[in-house]
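Bump. Still looking for PASTA domain-containing protein structure tokens.
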Amino acid sequence: MGFTTFIKSKQFIFSLIGAVVIIGLLVFGSLQFLSIYTRHGKEIKVPDLKKMKVESAMNAVAGNGFEIVIIDTVDYNPDFPSLTISEQDPKADAGVKEGRKIYVKINAKGYSSVRLPNLDGRTLRHATSIIESLGLVKGETKYEPDFAKDVVLRIEQDGRILRAGDKVLKNSKINFILGDGMLGYKPEIDSLGEMYEDVAPKIDSIF
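Sorry for the wait, here they are.
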């Protein structure tokens, strides 16, 4: 039987149809398997875990098969209770597959402390930028007699003089004692009246 005759035969046509059907069934079965394996279309919303203790959060997600992973403890944020979840990824209400890991960050127990650098002799502007970079807050400013103006003479907190190396809590206020720039200042005579008052006695003594 020639090739042309064979491809026109019923045997070849039935074989071809059978092969197409088998391939179609294999493709369909593979897609169904992948759909089941990946739980296609079956996403679960992530609960809001913020302000929850880790133990409570674990109990809240246990039914969905989620796993909580603590990745860091962040600086204390007064908007969240101590040692509770302050950040989470994925975020609340995000749609994820069952069994997904939820990464969380824990709010610190309280404000951490920082060591003060030497601020004496620095300008108020420079000293303010330094303490703010450390997480501290500028408090009151008071002036005392000094040759320089707006230069730090000392710093205080709650009436206590602070020195370089002292530890203070973040977010606490630092008060500045500054020079007023008036020490040794002598006003110049700037009016004819003042000049006359100084010269007049000498003129009267001539007559």
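The radius of gyration is 40 Å.

Edit: fixed formatting.
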